[in-house]
Design brief:
Elements (H helix, E strand, L loop, with lengths): L1 H81 L18
């Protein structure tokens, strides 16, 4: 009778030990996964900040390119009207007659 009880307890002990080992394994796996998730979130945040910085730079460059075209046209108009400049090979006709 005693041997039967010992075998019963022995199997129960092994089952409890196996369940405990499995629970520890799952716990360690979950902790490892949480650490990886945390690292990836930090990496994502850093990449998003870099992306935002690059987008701001791109906008500044685009605005600069857009405005430089306007500035070039403005400078050309001012040079032609105020300074009487002309492009190479271009003939400029000046009306010297009366204003009427």
């Amino acid at each position: 009778m005693r041997e039967l009880k010992m075998d019963k307890y022995k199997g129960s002990f092994l089952l409890k030990f196996a369940v405990l080992c499995f629970a520890v394994f799952i716990l360690v796996s979950l902790i490892g996964q949480q650490l990886q998730i945390s690292q990836k979130r930090e990496e994502l945040q850093a990449l998003q900040e870099q992306l935002e910085t690059q987008n701001v730079r791109n906008e500044e460059i685009q605005n600069s390119l857009d405005n430089s075209g306007d500035l070039a046209e403005y400078a050309e108009r001012r040079a032609r009207s105020d300074l009487d400049y002309a492009k190479p090979g271009e003939r400029v006709f000046v009306d010297v007659g009366g204003g009427s």
